TrEMBL record:
Alphabetized SMART domains for the sequence: AAA (SM00382)
GO biological process: L-amino acid transport
Pfam family, one: ABC_tran
UniProt name for this protein: ABC transporter ATP-binding protein
ABC transporter domain ranges (all copies): 7-239
């Protein structure tokens, strides 16, 4: 039984000065479902996530998570509305131990048995983080840092998780591990919005995708249909 709310986005637009990076983007993510946004470098994927979170100025006609209107919510308060964010490039606190990084992810929660339970769940999902809990985050490999960034976001107990290129810079084996984590989170009922250049990973992790080109939606459909589309295969899967 899913308790995750739907995400609804209508007419999202981002300008940097005179440059339009995201143009009138509309999509929804049903509660408990996973939706992907694929596109080349510079297509507008990161801007889309940052704009949803209110980290950069944007225009948007509708932005709702379940019954909550998020248009007036500032970025700091998004976590209280159940939104977790895994930024591009991980941004872990390199000089702090792994466990401290995770605890910082729970900053909006009161530390109690519930948060302790979440920490146990994160260590269950990523055993390597438990083994390395006392190590400085900066000493972890790229893949381990990515897992830490996901774990840190999960510490806020999000109902919607936004992920910006979690596969970036990772070996194929580690990309498979990230896929397994995403599938597990999805099976647990978490709503996912996954932004990626890696179309193969995204099609496997999601039920629906948007293909974004120059800030606009070029194609949408089920991930199953898109992965067989000749144009997608040529441009995004290199087949
Ligand atoms: P990446 O794979 O590099 O993350 P992306 O698809 O996420 O790419 P964005 O980073 O959202 O793309 O960038 C979309 C467009 O906006 C690009 O043309 C980029 O050059 C431009 N852009 C991004 N950030 C800024 C900024 N701070 N100022 C001006 N232009 C920007």
């Amino acid at each position: 039984p899913t308790t995750s709310p739907d995400l609804t986005v209508e007419g999202l637009t981002v300008h940097y000065g005179g440059v339009c990076a995201v143009r009138d983007l509309s999509f929804s993510v049903p509660g408990g479902d996973a939706v992907g946004v694929i596109g080349a470098n510079g297509a507008g994927k990161t801007s889309t996530l940052k704009a949803l979170l209110g980290l950069i100025p944007r225009q948007v006609r509708a932005l709702r998570l379940g019954g909550a209107d998020l248009r007036g919510v500032n970025a700091r308060d998004m976590v209280r509305h159940g939104i977790g964010y895994v930024p591009e490039g991980r941004h872990v606190f390199a000089g702090l131990p792994v466990e401290k990084n995770l605890l910082l992810g729970a900053y909006a929660r009161t530390w109690n048995t519930e948060t302790r339970k979440t920490l146990t769940e994160v260590y269950d999902l990523f055993p390597v983080l438990g083994e390395m809990r006392g190590r400085l985050a900066g000493a972890l490999s790229g893949g381990q840092q990515q897992m830490l960034a996901i774990g840190r976001a999960l510490m806020s107990k999000p109902r919607l998780l936004l992920l910006d290129e979690p596969s970036m810079g990772l070996s194929p084996k580690l990309v498979e591990e990230i896929l397994a984590v995403l599938l597990r989170l999805r099976a647990e009922g978490l709503t996912l919005l996954l932004v990626e250049q890696n179309a193969k990973l995204t099609f496997e992790a999601t039920s629906h995708c948007l293909v974004v080109e120059n800030g606009s939606v070029a194609m949408t459909g089920t991930s199953e249909r898109l992965r067989h589309d000749p144009r997608v295969r040529r441009i995004y899967l290199g087949l």
